[in-house]
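SAMPLE LOG
Freezer: B-3
Tube label: C17
Construct: single chain, 250 aa
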Amino acid sequence: MADFKVIIFDFDGTLADTREAIVRAKQETIRRMGLPPRTDEECAATIGLTAPLGFLKLYEGLPEPLVEKSTKMYRELFEHFRKALPPVVFPHVRETLQALQEAGCVLTVASSRNTPSLQDFLEILDLKDFFTLVLGAGDTAKYKPDPEPVLETLRRLEKRKPDTETLHRLRERKPDTETLHRLGEEETNDLQPAEVLVVGDMPFDILMGSRAGVKTCGVTYGNATADELWEAGADYVIDDMKDLADIVLK
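STRUCTURE (predicted):
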């Protein structure tokens, strides 16, 4: 029997390895835009953010027109690099998703990747059928590390007004004040926080989950270290996707 009813997965760096294509496209964008150089590690540290927010992380205060132009160029270049450097599903992802699905878990994706690209990747990698719901950057008004992708996932799965016990348990998990305010005034589902798990490779994923008041699991084979994931507040940290089954199906 599964300890978690809903598992919300990140995509890049969690389900599939897209790092090289992302970094190459970002570096080429920086070169063509004439922006100050950044290291591959600095570019990789933006994975998990939307493209515009990624450029703002690399260049604080970058004017909006340059953000827009850089984002447009990056997305065009990424399409080129993803063909030359196609994404690869990480080891044991497919088998783990299958085991979780068979155990009755509802599997979803919440990614900062633009929605058409995300859907396309899931289709190409033959992962789409594992997921009940897929949310990309175009599906929420706010993005990681904001809790909105988690809250929107839960609202879409099953809408209802949260009861007093649910709100009490959420407060025990200490989500931020804004999250409690949203849950108190908007419709959400009747899942308990302890029944929902966010799985991701970046601190942004962990912060998104913890701010929504749910459990979180970091993976170390993506783009962040175990220390970075623990520091962000992860409840679990694993080195291999197969270890997720031990957590969920114990």
